[in-house]
Amino acid sequence: MATLSSSEVSKFSAAVPFWLSLLMIPLALIGATQGGWWLVLLPLYGWGMFSVLDAIIGLNLDNADLETTEDDLFWYRVITMMWFPLQFVLIFGMIAYATRADHLSGWEQIALFFGVGVISGTIGINYSHELMHQKNKLERWLGDLLLASVLYSHFRSEHLLVHHRYVGTPKDPVTARYNEGFHRFFPRVLRESLVSSWRAEKAMLARKGLPATDLSNPFWRYWALQAGMLILAFLIGGWAGLGLFVFQAYVAIWQLELVNYVEHYGLTRKHLGDGKYEHVQPRHSWNAAHKASNWLLINLQRHSDHHYKPDRRFPLLQNYTEEDAPQLPYGYPVMTLAAMVPPVYRRIMNPRVRKWRAMYYPEITDWAPYKAATNPMPR
């Protein structure tokens, strides 16, 4: 495992692979103008090509020097900050085009916006995740705008106030339970994450002596931004445009929650008694060092380090060895496809979870409360 110096990290050539997401935009334009089988280009690019590249290129085990400055990361920050205007124009431009294109059938329009949802989910929500963790107000606002464009603004509150604090405990809706298939996880997390994010913001306001209805509650901003997006979609494309906008948002949310499902499946923090849990450690996240998919997902697969240092920018996220953190056999593109077929996913992952339990918690003999999430809620 090598350490890359600040001068190596700061080179434009080192940042360029993380710009591969930009190629999804011309693929969307080709699909829209040509229709037919050209519409499969986007899903094939997002899942197929990067899975193949992972198999060919292999792993990246190198780490960037943590003394690398913000100025050295300019070319990495640019891609995340420029993404919202690009995605905004893409979504609403596609609505304007598709609802007036005679060569696109109804099914082709749906297929096109499935691809748009792949972009706004795989790239847009992922970039919003990077932006929401930063201290810069402009970046946080861009993160909010990206989430509003997929009608999932409360993800910011849920992620920052609930997930990072309670990951691996019964209080975190996003931690997928052992043996819980994705098709059970998905509706559960949609329901519970909305409730938990609202409660977290309400509790934070209560500590300040303010009611949940206070205008400082970010949910007012969330609702206003989402309403603005819905109104704009309707004004541009009528009811068809509104339907296509909502559909791409659904696809994007599905993409996000597939990744959430994979990131912590079956991993739990040890209950120490009286609602106390051990601190979050690298062992509580699944990691993948696959080079190509980490380019596409801006190092999201270095997930243990993200939980250790949430505001660490993606080029500086550190890789962990198999001795320190559990590793996935494939990158997220393959793992999320496997998650759509629960028997396949369980066959791949359940033995790894059992190995993880034996490795880190040999003293725990009854895993039933962890599996069913019936341990006491953390204090």
Describe this structure as you would to a colleague.
By secondary structure, this protein is an all-alpha fold. The protein has one domain (3-371). 60% of the residues lie in helices and 2% in strands. It has 15 helices and four strands. The chain has helices at residues 6-9, 12-15, 24-34, 41-57, 74-98, 106-132, 137-148, 155-166, 182-207, 218-264, 291-296, 303-308, 332-339, 342-360, 368-371; strands at residues 3-4, 63-64, 271-273, 276-277. The strands form two sheets. It has a two-stranded parallel ribbon. Strand 3 and strand 4 form a beta hairpin. Helix 4 (41-57) crosses helix 6 (106-132) and helix 6 crosses helix 10 (218-264). The longest helix has 47 residues, at 218-264. The two termini are 39 Å apart. The model has no long low-confidence stretch (mean pLDDT 95).
The average pLDDT value, as a whole number, equals 95
Radius of gyration: 21 Å
Instruction: Characterize the overall form.
Output: globular
Helix content: 55-70%
Biggest beta-sheet profile = 2 strands, parallel
Would you identify the regions where 5 or more consecutive residues have pLDDT less than 50? Answer: none
The portion of residues forming beta strands comes to under 5%
* Domains, number: 1
